[in-house]
Specification:
Layout: H1 8-13, H2 16-19, H3 32-35, H4 40-46, E1 53-56, H5 63-73, E2 77-82, H6 88-105, E3 109-114, H7 121-133, E4 136-142, H8 146-149, H9 152-156, E5 159-162, H10 168-180, E6 190-192, H11 194-204, H12 208-221, E7 230-232, H13 234-241, H14 253-267, H15 271-283, H16 288-303, H17 309-324, H18 330-342, H19 348-363, H20 423-442
């Protein structure tokens, strides 16, 4: 079915977001960073010299609408398909028709593929030769990062334009236009309060489709007053909107952005923010094991020796998840989040281990000092392995000065404890050991 079909019957019963679809760039609202006056994409559309593009952005920000506007602007043949209902055979047929149309009639073909990320690799490969030769001008629309979902070969032959969530003033413009335009709700006597509009805009979260369809539901379900006007106040808008929809894509940018915000909130010692981002992930159905894995990493990487119990808390959260499952495990996971967020922070562990790895990579395999070698296997004692080793538990305070590094690495230091939390005690202890070593060095 044509995504842009506009028969009178279809138009009459279509959702408000479809009925209010703009016919030209002048009616298009938002995305000024790519469609504002003088912008390259705007000139390409108005001058009908468009080349293959990928429109990337969250739902309801105008990707399909922009395709519709292009279909109204171009003098070429515009074809649109949905990746959810299109197979390789149909794409091959369309590519062949485009080739013939260009060869025999001098006409170019613009192919709009909605949800292009749903095309598998083989289906995308079908389009590649036609796009490369210029037989097809491809417009792909996707809610997911095209660098993850679209073949590199297609990407290299396309310009990528990222569409942003609409701002509140964009949504207000669309809502007021829909309330007045005969295509929308203009023929339905209505009165929507500013508070109601503001609420609908807020819960739409930058999504024009959500805004318009919720607005239509609110107006059409409102009881007419004595004058026959459908009045929508704030309580009516709240009832129509019900719950706010949380945008989150477990495989695309939102997945990485939200987990990044979560980790940075933990590192920044903000338990409230960390719990908020955790709630976003729970609400969206993120795998809780993924969250716990990040807690384990963060407990070691950013809390580390300043509070070693943080790692145990993260481990306990994972244990609770396996034994309790969700939703019960949300509580011990939240407890671990709060503990880790409020714990003293030190990244000395990751600094130390990375420095040690770099040193090994640079110096290679240094020989193990003889006194540290294993003397238990056959013939080892005869070779002198282990000779001269001092057993620390035989000495006061269970410590004795001796060398544990290869001879040419005696000054090797990678662990530098901070002054945070428990690590301050560790720092003092290591400083004491360093004094004992220095004293031994000075002795004749």
């Amino acid at each position: 079915m044509d995504l842009f079909e506009s028969s009178p019957l279809r138009h009459e019963h279509a959702p408000l977001a479809v009925r209010m679809r703009p016919e030209s760039l002048e009616e298009y609202v938002g995305q000024e960073h790519i469609l504002g006056p003088g912008r390259l994409l705007r000139r390409a559309i108005t001058e009908d010299i468009l080349r293959s593009i990928i429109l990337y952005g969250p739902p309801g920000v105008g990707k399909t609408t922009l395709g519709y506007v292009i279909s109204k602007t171009t003098k070429g043949v515009f074809v649109n398909v949905s990746a959810t209902t299109t197979g390789a055979a149909e794409l091959k047929r369309l590519a062949e028709e485009a080739r013939d149309r260009r060869a025999f009639h001098g006409q170019r073909t613009i192919l709009f593929v909605d949800e292009i990320q749903r095309l598998n690799k083989a289906q995308q490969d079908v389009l590649l030769p036609a796009v490369e030769k210029g037989d097809l001008i491809l417009i792909g629309a996707t809610t997911e990062n095209p660098y993850f979902e679209v073949n590199a070969a297609l990407l290299s032959r396309s310009q990528i334009y990222q569409l942003k969530p609409l701002e509140d003033h964009h949504l207000l413009t669309l809502a007021r236009r829909a309330l007045q335009d005969p295509r929308g709700l203009g023929e339905v006597p209505n009165q929507v309060s500013e508070e109601a509009l503001a609420h609908l805009v807020r819960i739409a979260n930058g999504d024009a489709r959500v805004l318009l369809n919720t607005l239509e539901f609110a107006v059409l379900t409102a009881l007419p007053n004595e004058e026959g006007v459908r009045v929508v106040d704030l309580p009516a808008a709240e009832e129509a909107a019900q719950a706010q929809r949380v945008r989150y894509d477990k495989t695309g940018d939102q997945h990485y952005d939200v987990i990044s915000a979560f980790i940075k909130s933990l590192r920044g010692s903000d338990p409230d923010a960390a719990l908020y981002w955790y709630a976003r992930m729970v609400y969206a159905g993120e795998d809780p094991r993924f969250v716990v894995r990040r807690l384990l990493v963060h407990a070691a990487e950013d809390v580390g020796m300043a509070d070693p119990t943080a790692l145990l808390m993260a481990q306990a959260a994972g244990f609770a998840l396996e034994w309790l499952g969700m939703p019960e495990a949300r509580i011990p996971i939240a407890q671990a989040i709060i503990y880790i967020a409020t714990a003293p922070k030190s990244n000395s562990v990751i600094t130390a281990v990375d420095a040690a790895l770099a040193a090994v990579e640079k110096s290679g395999a240094e020989p193990v000092p003889v006194h540290l070698r294993d003397a238990h296997y056959a013939g080892a004692a005869q070779l002198g392995h282990g000779k001269g080793y001092k057993y620390p538990h035989d000495y006061p305070h269970h410590y004795v000065v001796q060398d544990y590094l290869p001879e040419n690495m005696r000054d090797f230091r990678v662990y530098e404890p901070s002054d945070q939390g428990r690590e301050k005690v560790i720092k003092e202890r290591l400083a004491y050991f360093a004094q004992l070593k220095a004293k031994r060095t000075k002795e004749p």
